[in-house]
Amino acid sequence: MSLSVAVVGATGAVGREMLAVLEQRKFPSASVRAFASPRSAGVKIPFRGGDLTVEPLADGWHKGIDCALLSAGSSISKAVAPVAAEAGTVVIDNSSAFRMTDGVPLIIPEVNADALPARGKGCIVANPNCSTIILLMGITPLHRAFGVERVVVSTYQAASGAGAQAMAALEAETREFVAGGPPRAIAFHEPYAFNLFCHNSTVDAMTGLNGEEQKMIDETHKIWNDPAVRITATCVRVPVMRAHCESVNVTLKNAATLAQVRTSLTAFRGVSIVDDRLTNRFPTPQKASGGDDVLVGRLRADPSQLAPGASPESATRGFDLFLAGDQLRKGAALNAVQIAERMFL
Ligand SMILES: NC(=O)c1ccc[n+]([C@@H]2O[C@H](COP(=O)([O-])OP(=O)(O)OC[C@H]3O[C@@H](n4cnc5c(N)ncnc54)[C@H](OP(=O)(O)O)[C@@H]3O)[C@@H](O)[C@H]2O)c1
Q: What is the CATH number of domain 3-128+332-344?
């Protein structure tokens, strides 16, 4: 198979990672083209031992493209994805533009590949929000084995989740702060270095939820095709360069032992257990960075849900876990390329 692939947003944090993942996974493409804004026209990006020259996104960009990986933001996706899909391109979109659109599948291949459309014609497939992907990689094994009734999740989200400019801002603010300068907010509504704050998406005046929290709720219902799962989220930006972490409390429908929970997680492709109580070694952003798997640890029975006097090894419905995942890879680029692999290979 010799496919023609386009990466739109190729100069961004996700786009560069997409090119790296295509190369690393030897995605079978006869040609790969890199598109970005006119500002980046002519920029060279190393790829497969040579250079790709970035092209400005212009009308007709999709002609002859079998598969387009979009990561140029939601307004660009809204403008270009339907036209390309209509013309026969399989568009895999990283933005939030179509995630909740009826008829557009929202896919994590390990979780709901069965919702992918048939091959052979143009379509839009949406990549979920990075925090949703990391959460569902960690708790789908429990949902399948025991049923998940309720989820309480708190995120610790890295700068790279907000793109290349946020990463540069964190670095600049950190340099200024350690040099004795006053805290300064370059990229967000609050100073970022040596600080943490409510996720930078808009906070709904009525619900009090920020946009990221609402996405985690809505997208989980769509991906699991189960609007009955009760879920609440608190999303926080932390001064970490790369990889998101999430603290998760789940209530299962059916009681399980810690050993059974561990077994179900161990068997799930794309998850690695990092859980060493003896040496206090658990998932961290640094351990997750650059890797493909979502790391799962701090596995324990939730003491507030154990029967009085019950052993933490006994069957219970409440568990706590801590996740770390590289949101540029599994949360975005890798997930998108895995979708392409499922669609074409
Ligand atoms: N970062 C993450 O972890 C993550 C995870 C999941 C989903 N996403 C989503 O992926 C998308 C990109 O995120 P990012 O973090 O990679 O952002 P980013 O680093 O800011 O990159 C944005 C990319 O979009 C391009 N672009 C901007 N305006 C354009 C235009 N008018 N025409 C064509 N290209 C244009 C930029 O090109 P120039 O360099 O030329 O400006 C750049 O390549 C967003 O929708 C984001 O929500 C991000």
A: 3.40.50.720
